[in-house]
Write a structure and sequence with these properties.
Bound molecules: glycinamide ribonucleotide
Mean pLDDT: 97
CATH class: Alpha Beta
Number of strands: 7
Order of helices and strands: EHHEHEHEHEHEEH
Distance between the termini: 12 Å
Low-confidence stretches: none
Strand order of the largest sheet: 3-2-1-4-5-6-7
Length: about 200
């Protein structure tokens, strides 16, 4: 059985969408895969409650307890290692995980580490994507699911969704419109990856 570990930092709505899709579509039977653990770098991440209620193991690894990025990422890899099997490599899914990962961590999970970013990459890497799209006068915005590489918000694009930017949009209204699409494309992109393997 392939293990999927989801990393979150907050609301966890993408994680919840993935969990619901996995249950609705029967990923266990279909892909021999299950969402085994949800790890948050914040103890108060709301998503942890949802995961716990669904019977998924939850863990908190507070980045503030570590002196360096390397140490935090090393400890994170140590947690994930429990779910990594030689014949069934773990799939690591970043879902609103607001940490920049070290090249060593990324290298360890190359090809099995995916992220969702709230912009139409390669436009607007980094933070405040919705405000920056509005400020730039974009008529369309969206979200991108991509493989994670050492360069922030780069890597092979696996899926994208496009939404209009409306004249009276704020960063919040645009973010909400994009998020509804994230909930559709992220589970689908993961299912496609599982299907291929
Ligand atoms: C999502 O919009 C996701 O694309 C974004 O954070 C939000 C998390 O929402 N991720 C990033 O900005 C990563 N750089 P969620 O916790 O409800 O899934």
């Amino acid at each position: 059985m392939k293990n999927i570990v989801i990393l979150i930092s907050g609301g966890g709505s993408n994680m919840a969408a993935i969990v619901k899709s996995a249950q609705r579509e029967g990923w266990r039977e279909k892909f021999n895969a299950r969402i085994t653990a949800v790890i948050s770098n914040k103890a108060d991440a709301k998503g942890l409650i949802f995961a716990h209620e669904r019977g998924i193991a939850t863990m908190v690894l507070d980045h503030k307890a570590f002196a360096s990025r390397d140490e935090f990422d090393g400890a994170l890899a140590g947690l994930i290692e429990r779910f990594d099997q030689p014949d069934e490599p773990v799939l690591v899914v970043l879902a609103g995980f607001m940490r920049i990962l070290t090249p060593a961590f990324v290298a360890r999970y190359t090809g099995r580490l995916v992220n969702i970013h709230p912009s139409l990459l390669p436009a607007f890497t980094g933070l405040h994507t919705h405000q920056r799209a509005i400020d730039a006068g974009c008529k369309f915005a969206g979200a991108t699911v991509h493989q994670v590489t050492a360069e922030l918000d780069h890597g092979e694009i696996l899926a994208q969704a496009v939404v209009p930017v409306l004249p009276d949009d704020t960063a919040d209204t645009l973010a909400a419109r994009v998020l509804t699409q994230e909930h559709i494309i992220y589970p689908r992109a993961i299912a496609d990856l599982l299907q291929k393997k």
